[in-house]
Structure formats: C-alpha cells, structure tokens
Amino acid sequence: MNQVNSFTNRINKALGKKQLQNNFRSAMNYLMDKRLAKFPDYERLQISRHKSNTIRTNSVSNIKDLLILLEKNLVRNGIKVHWAENGNQANEIIQSILTKADAKKVVKGKSMVSEEIELNEYLIENGFEILETDLGEFLIQLSDDKPSHIVMPAIHKNKFEIARTFSDNFPDLKYTEDVDELTQQARLVLREKFSHADAGISGVNFAVAETGTLCLVENEGNGRMCTTVPDLHIAITGIEKVVEKLENIPPLFDILPKSATGQECTTYFNMISGPRKKDEKDGPSEVHLVLLDNGRSRVSRDNSINDILSCIRCGSCINHCPVYVKLGGHAYGTVYPGPVGIVFESLTQGLDKTGALTSACTMCGACEQVCPVKIPLPTLINRLRNESIEGVDSDSILGKGSLKMPIESGIWKVWRFIYSNPLVYLFFIRAMTRMRLLVPTKFGKWSKYRNTPKPSKRSIEEIARSEGFINE
Amino acid sequence: MNSSRENILNNLLEGSIESKQRKIVERDSDNPISNKKKIESLKNMLESVRAEVHLLSFNSLNEWINSELSKRNLNRVLIGSKATQKELDLKPSKSLDVSYYVNNIEDWKNELFNDIDVGITTTIGAIARTGSLVLWPNSEEPRLISLVPDVHIAIVKVDEIYETFSEIIQKQKWAENMPTNALLISGPSKTADIEQVLAYGVHGPKQLIVLIVS
Amino acid sequence: MTKQVYFMGTCLADLYYPKIALAGMQLLSREGVEVIYPKKQTCCGQPAFNSGYRKESLPVARSLMSCFKKNIPIVVPSGSCAGMIKHHWSELFVGELDYDEAVSVSKRVFELTEFLVDNLHIKLTDLGEPTNIAIHTSCSCRNEMRVADRIESLVSQLANVDVSVQERKKECCGFGGTFAIKQADISGAMVKDKTDALKAINADKVVSQDCGCLMNIGGALSKQQSKLKTQHIAEFLWDRTNEPS
C-alpha cells in the first residue's frame, strides 16, 4: 500500500499549508469566472462541445490511420518523424538529434509531455544546457520546483516568492515585486538566450494529418522564439494529439483558450508545416517531431476507456475540481493532476502506480460539466476505483486489483449481507432504532469535523404503516 | 526485432477513416456580417488586448508611418524587402533608418535583436471574430519581423477581413498548400503567470499596431 | 384512476431522518397521489458502487429492484439515490440477465422536487413565519439529475421565504458518500469552506434535497456550534404549507 501511504502524506502536507490553500482558492476562482464569462450562451456552448467531442473521438477511433497519414505528410513537408514507445526512447532520440546537430544550448517552450518523460533532467545529466522559456515554467525551473497545474504551472507561487526567486538567480537585477517589472526582467534575460540557442524544443497542441502541420498555442511569444530562432526545432507530442483535417482546427482553437484561461483566443497561434525553405531567411533548417506512446496505444484499444485520449489539455476539469482546489497539483504526485490526471495517469501508468488517486474524488461531476470534449470523467474514475479493487488483470488496464483491502472488503460483504436481504435488514433496522442509545456517534475522522445524530426512534416502514401509507 | 514505429502501430486501435467518420456540421453564419461590422469587431477585439488600431486610406499610409515613427522615436525600421516597401507605396523619410530582411538570420542576428525598433509586415488577412491578424511569412517577409522587434506594425487590407478562422481557411484554400509557417497574431505578447495578473510585453512584441487600410 | 407512485425512503433517511420520507409521502398524498411504500426496500447500492465494490452493490440493487414491479413512477427524496438508479444501474447490471429490467426501472425514477414540479405541478401556499434561507443543491441534483432549478422554483412559491445566496453555491460540500470517511481530511476542509460560505450570509436555515449533504453540512455546523439550522426540502415544504390539524 505504498502508494496509498505516500498519497496520504502528500495530502496532509497540502492541507496543512494555509498560504497554498489561499493561493489556489483565488487562482481557481479567477479561472472559473473567466471561463464562465466566455460561454454566456448555454446552447451555443453545448453545440461547441458536441463538435469538439466529435472531432476528438474521431481522432481516437481512427488514430492508427491518422498517425500514418500525419507521418506521410510531415515527411513530405520535410519534417523528420520519430516514434518513441516510452520516455527513455524519447529522451534518447532527442539527445541523438541534438548531438548530431552539435547543439548544446537548448531553449524550451511549455510541454507537459516533456515533463512526462523528464526530458530536462535527462538532458542536463547528459551535458546539455536546457532552459524553460514559458514564464511560469521558467520560474519553476529557477526555483527547482515542479509544475502544479497543466496550464498555469507556477499558480502555487505568489509574487513575493517569485521576486525572491528572481533576485536570488539574477543578483544584478534590481529586486522588485512589481509584476510588470518582473516580466520585463524575464524578457531581458530570456532574449539573450533565444538569440544564442542552438536548438528549440516545443510541445504540440494539435497535429494535422491532412496537411502535415504542427499547431501551437501561446500568449508570451516564447514558443515562436523557440521554434523560429534556433536552426534546429524538435517538437514532442503524445500520439493522441493528431487531428484529421485542417478544418477541425478552428472549433478546437475556439474552445481551448476559452476553457483554459477564459480568452477569446491566445495571442499567437503558430502553425508549422516544414523547415526553412531554400529562399527563406529564417526559421529552423531542421524540424523533427517525436511521437510519444508511453501507454497511450494500449489505452486506445479499449473503447470503454479511450475517451480520455480526446483530452486537449485545457485544464478546465482541474480548475473546477473541489478536491484539487484544496490539495493543489503537487499533492497528486503526478505530472497531470486533478480529474484528468487521475484517469490519464492510472490508465497509462497503471493502477498499481496511481490507483490511490481515484479516492480523491467526490463524484460531484463538475469536471464533466466543463470538459470541452465531453470526457465522462466521473464514470472513468468510478470504473478505475472498481478495477483497482475488484478487477482482474487484463490487457488494457494495468494494475487491476492492486488496491484490494481485505478488511474494507469484509466490511462491504457485511453491508451486502444486511442490505440485500430484507429480513436481515429488518432485524438490523429494528436493532438500530430500539438500541439507538447504544449506537456510537463517533466514527473516526468523520467525527473530527462533524457531529452525528443518534439513529431515529422508528424506521420509515413503521412510520409509513402508522400513517396509513400502503405498505406492500 | 520490430522498430518502435511498428510496435506502436501494432498496438493501436484498429479503425478506418471511412467507417468511423461522423459528419461534422459547421454552423454557418445565417447572416454574414457586414464589412462595417467586421472592421468594428476586429478593432474592438484588438483594442481589448491593448493593440493599437487605426483606419487609414492607402494614400495616407506613408504619411502616417513617417510621422508616427519619428514621433515615437521608432527610427530603426525593419521591412521585408524593397518589393514590399514598393507594394505599400512607402517612401521612408530621412529620419528613419530602414533595414531590409534580405540576409539570412545567421548573418545578422545581433542587429535584428538589438538594433531594430519596429518591424512592419503585411498580412494575408484578418479575423474579425477573434481580433486576429493572419500572416504567412515567406522569403519576402521573413518570420522574425513580427516577433523580435519591440514593436510590430501590421498592415491589414480592409477587404481581406474575414469573419471567422474557418472562413479564411476555406476561402483561401489553406488545406491545398500550407506555408512553412502560418500565424495568427491577436495582440501584443502577454502573460498571467504571476499571480494571474496580466502583464504585457513578454517575449514577443510589447506593442502591436494594426493599420487597417482601405 | 388515482395516480400511484412507489416511494423510496433511502437507506440514510431510514437510519437517521425518517421524517424526511414521511414529509415526502405526505406532500405527494396531499396532491391526490396514492403512495406505496414497499416495505422490503433497503438501498440502491450506491455506497458500495461508489467505493469500487460493484460485486457487493449488485445484489443490494437487485433486492431493491424487486420492490418496484408495477410500471409506476418511483419517487426518491434524494438526488444521489435517484441518480444512482437512473444513471448507474445500467452500468451496474451490464451483462446480467436482469439488465433489461434494471434499465426499465431506471427510466421510472424521479427525484422528489422534480416530480412535484414536473409531474404534479404542485401549488404551494406559505403558512409559515417570514424567514430567510439558503438553498444547497446537491451535486447529484445539479449535475446528474439536472433538476437544480426545481427546488428553487418550489421555494419561490413560498411568499414568506427569502433566499440568500452563498458564495460558490455550485461547489461540492465534500460529502461524496464514503469519500467523507476515506478522505476525511479533504472532506473536512471542503465542508469547512461550505459552512464558512453559508455562515457568511443572512440565512436562518439551509435547505437541501439530499440528506447526505445535510448530514455533512448540518453535522459540521453543529460541531462548530453554529446557530444555522439545516432541513430537507420535503420537511421544509410540509411544515410551511400544512394546515395543522
């Protein structure tokens, strides 16, 4: 039960931090309000969601053919395509590309997939200089931290912490807590890095099979810098990001920024379809795409779970999760936190690794209401809970049954005995009502936060009978 | 031994495009909006994210550029090529120091990053609903003009304003031939990574000036 | 022919809050409905289902299902129990011989406020003293059963009742069934947020459709020694609209 214990430790740590609680509460309120303001018309929102769901579930059901088509068109365009079954392979591929190009200094745009494979650690270990350029990720890197949210990685930091991080790392710069000044300092520091970098690494938001195009969304301009200034660009993506047609992009680009940060659209939408052409003056002369599997292909095969691959990484589910707001991202201990994390991590890595996370959910359904591609998250979490306890090992879900607990299981067997046998239940409820004063009202930690009443004096059945309701 | 590619492909869900494709119905604009409304929408959306927008006649473009750039001390100007300059009928005044992006980036990176105040580009259109400029950089107007200088001036033709992203993709037949790089630019660069407070001018241009020219 | 319905009390109300069930049956009966209370009923199976124990949940749900043989509506004073039957029995009974029966039963389920408004078009006359309340809609009523506005519409018929709106009204109270025991500390933090929000407004009482939420919120308020009371909507409506005999 190691994963259960370590999760519990992380939870306790998170719940004990007042400052963190406040940060997350105000950040999530902000993101939820901003999103709501962008969807004033309920009907229109449902139409958009339906459209996005159709596009993305098509992507998943046709994933094999689309990846083959994507590769064909990327290669035709001059982009080199690599396939990585897992993080190790992906890291080795990237290292080899960099080495071949004699590239040492790397600038990087935001990519959750790169977190998944721990790319930064790997490259640094192997002698490369790799710098995060998205401001949030930059701050994370400077403070040797991990992202706590998939869209706003430094959301757990307040400006005092950030000011301190800056001045610790750049002692020549004036100490400031002013957001504009801090931003300008970051601009100054990173511009120098952009112009001298040997290679740029980026993620991909959507990969269009029809035209062999990589699409990236961003607000800061660092993504464009990373993918345009250095002579080498390496993009890495999960295989599920493939989308069939160019005409599928506008609906997705419409709903993604609105869901994620409550923006009409991001400042930049960058569509890359090839390396620098012969007479062009800038842009990388070499562009690579690394397609990462890391468990996704196995998930794709099972139609009862592959909806999770529709995810477009907007973070809405995370923003609306009442459990996430109390824990923050780090407590989950995974790259992807919140509702999407519980499902995606458990399905790609196995319930034996992250199945404990399935208990961090009240089944409130808020996530399902806001998911732009209509992933049935609560249903999937419930399913995974069940598989982690009662499941028997199978092909598409790993780690089934790894959270089987004999005592808990025994309690539920007793419960079943009482509640599935009306005569036994009658005896039980008589006992509870007649001996109500003997029934405990303290139930472990439940009672730390609440008082519990004594059982009632009469059961409903008795009352119904005495009030004259038909009692079949 | 199978390659990674083979392993991954063999592991994937079997499906076929023909059998699984569901029809996607794009909601057509019942009433395509008027040009006037398009301009208004483009202007409002851009201004809401701190871009500066001006409506000019083609004839007054040159004068605006000359007088405004001098006034704002944006004297070191980058234009794609002399051909672009001619197309825009620009005659830069003597107070402006105009560079043309005719050499490869490798040959003059330092100057591009440090010695240019403003980059001027044309566009292939704009999107009214989202307030976006659409650029297809090419050999005449390379990609970094609209990214590196602190100020970016983009020139939009008033009859090249589309209502939606879908519309421009469809009408300009993008799917037939995508350029190396296609861009939607919807304001000066920004971030909200520090306590969700919006700050402008991060890594892309600090200022975006849009000239809608008729 | 008088309209007939089955009334499902819910296992939680049976143990702790039977008056909720009584109030529900009385409200229905007053509208001329013949209420049948199947005495063999126990539980919809949700506690085990949500805890991952579907093998234990199934026989319990099956036992309940046998109480609802007649093709008449089943009214439940709880969004989460109604939701379990309506939306999850089809999942639970997958592959079982009585799958079709489960599906057909699930189509006959109504949450109480839903039934009062949609089926009975109930008209209420407020006989109570002026009061100010907060409404807490359970997540299952809001997101699963999608009947959040029914409780609002019922309360709006009560002329002497003002409604105050708490902050983050739509956010989960932290009950989540066995979540409140399995992740007690997270649940405790969530219910604290909820009770803080409810205490910050001008309400005398918090009214809800689900006694799980009420047990959670009410229990927390009681532990905090708050004067703020809680009551199920069925009792609230019955108390305020019933002529004392």
Structure in words:
The complex is a heterotrimer of chains A (472), B (214) and C (245). Chain A is of the alpha/beta class and 472 residues long. Chain A has 23 helices and ten strands. In chain A, the strands form two sheets. Chain A has a six-stranded parallel β-sheet, sandwiched between helices. In chain A, strand 5 and strand 6 form a beta hairpin. The mean pLDDT of chain B is 92. Chain B has a single domain, classed as 3-Layer(aba) Sandwich (Rossmann fold), CATH 3.40.50.10420. In chain B, a hairpin with a 7-residue loop joins strand 10 and strand 11. Chain B is α/β, with parallel strands linked by helices. A six-stranded parallel β-sheet of chain B has the order 1-12-7-4-2-3. Chain B has a four-stranded mixed β-sheet with strand order 8-5-6-9. Chain C contains 13 helices and eight strands. Chain C is α/β, with parallel strands linked by helices and 245 residues long. Chain C is 50% helix and 13% strand. The longest helix of chain C has 16 residues. Chain C has two domains: 116 residues; 111 residues, Rossmann fold. Chains A and B meet through helix 2, helix 3, helix 4, helix 8 and helix 10 of A and helix 1, helix 6, helix 7, strand 9 and strand 10 of B.
* CA-atom Rg of chain C in angstroms: 18 Å
Relevant CATH superfamily of the largest domain in chain A? NagB/RpiA/CoA transferase-like
Largest sheet of chain C: 4 strands, parallel
Order of helices and strands of chain C: EHHEHHEHHEHEHHEHHEHEH
Q: Note the gap between the termini of chain A.
A: 47 Å
Mean pLDDT of chain C: 96
Care to count the β-strands of chain A?
10
- Identify the biggest protein-protein contact and residues per side: A-B, 100 and 75 residues
Please state roughly what percent of the residues of chain A sit in beta strands, choosing from under 5%, 5-15%, 15-25%, 25-35%, 35-45% or over 45%.
5-15%
**Main beta sheet of chain A: strand number and arrangement?**
6 strands, parallel
Residue windows where pLDDT falls under 50 for at least 5 positions of chain A? none
**What are the low-pLDDT stretches of chain C, counting only 5+ consecutive residues below 50?**
none
Instruction: Return the CATH architecture of the largest domain in chain A.
Output: 3-Layer(aba) Sandwich
Number of strands of chain C: 8
**Fraction in helix of chain C:** 40-55%
- Tally the structural domains of chain C: 2
- Please give the alpha-carbon distance between the first and last residues of chain C: 28 Å
Task: State the shape of chain A.
Answer: globular
The oligomeric status of these chains comes to: heterotrimer
Query: Which range does the strand content of chain C fall in?
Result: 5-15%
Total individual domains of chain A: 3
